[in-house]
């Protein structure tokens, strides 16, 4: 097995702009959810002691929720970007290639 640098791609990614917008949007959404966690800890830390599902306090539940949200958002991002790449990075049709 040879360990060589990856071959340089000369193809342009036509979906890169839209993928960046999706990524930024998801980042802003996650940042707002995380800011809620921080705000509760700063302004109402006693709320983190409240018992919630299965006897877990809010701090543990919110923490697990943030982790699960990040994983789900990563899967959503991957799915959306894959669809964009499939539609926007299609090779030229045969009629265009023969010109």
Summarize the entry for a quick read.
The chain has helices at residues 16-43, 58-88, 94-97. It is mainly α and 99 residues long.
Task: Write structural notes for this entry.
The protein is mainly alpha-helical. It has a domain at 40-86. Helix content is 64%, strand content 0%. It has 3 helices and no strands. α1 runs antiparallel to α2. It is elongated and about 55 Å long. The model has no long low-confidence stretch (mean pLDDT 88).
Structure keywords:
single chain; 99 residues; mainly alpha; 3 helices; 64% helix; 0% strand
Query: Helical element count?
Result: 3
Biggest beta-sheet profile: none
Shape: elongated
Amino-to-carboxy terminus distance: 41 Å
How many beta-strand segments?
0
Rg computed from alpha carbons, rounded to a whole number of angstroms: 22 Å
Secondary-structure blueprint of this entry?
Elements: H1 16-43, H2 58-88, H3 94-97
Helix pairs in contact: 1-2
